[in-house]
Amino acid sequence: MASLARSLHCWATRIGVIGALVLLVPAGGCLWWPDIDERTTVSQPPVIDRGKIPDPSPDRLVQLQTVVAVFSLAGAISDPDTPLEALQVHWYLGYPEYLAARKVPKGPDFIAQTSIRLNVCAFQEEFDLGGGRALLEAFVSDGPIGYDPDSGRVLTSGYAYVAWELDASGVVCP
């Protein structure tokens, strides 16, 4: 009887080993480590190359002498994974000054333009709030730039930022 039990146990072991091999052979490729591929970045933020921004440079105080001044980011924006025409561009003039004086944020002054013509006289309130000076900010984002009446501008995606400090004390408005 012991011999029969040993024989059955031996057969069960063989069938178990053979069964396991039969099951593993079709899945044999899964037993090996897969090739390692670098993870691709899903979204990289846009970049503004300050060296390619045409005059006036954001690296110094801009003394405005005429009623209209041109500011441009054309040729200075790049994004490795978003077409340039799909980027969102918002310009704000005097945002910090307006927020401090009015206690409420304001929306963008220009949207979807890489170059703007700023009429100083049309924005006298922003310059008056800053004592003749105002900050011109440009945000470039690869996602939407929202506006919340309580918290102001809302950036939910990658973005690049550049600002000019403007002095309009030399401009006389009619």
Task: Characterise the protein shown here.
The structure is a single chain. This protein has 174 residues and is α+β, with helices and mostly antiparallel strands. The protein has a domain at 47-167. Helices cover 21% and strands 29% of the residues. The chain has helices at 2-24, 95-102, 124-129, and strands at 47-48, 62-63, 68-72, 77-78, 88-93, 110-111, 115-119, 133-141, 145-148, 152-155, 159-167. A five-stranded mixed sheet has the order 2-11-8-5-6. A hairpin with a 3-residue loop joins β9 and β10 (152-155). The chain is elongated, with a radius of gyration of 32 Å. It starts with a helix and ends in a 7-residue tail after the last strand. The model is unreliable at 17-25 (pLDDT under 50).
β-strand number: 11
Shape: elongated
Residue share in β-strands: 25-35%
Structural class: alpha+beta
Tally of separate helices? 3
User: Strand order, biggest sheet?
Assistant: 2-11-8-5-6
Topology as a string of helices (H) and strands (E): HEEEEEHEEHEEEE
Average pLDDT taken over every residue: 85
Q: Please estimate the helix content.
A: 10-25%
> Could you give the distance between the termini?
117 Å
C-alpha Rg (nearest Å)? 32 Å
Largest sheet: 5 strands, mixed
The low-confidence parts are 17-25
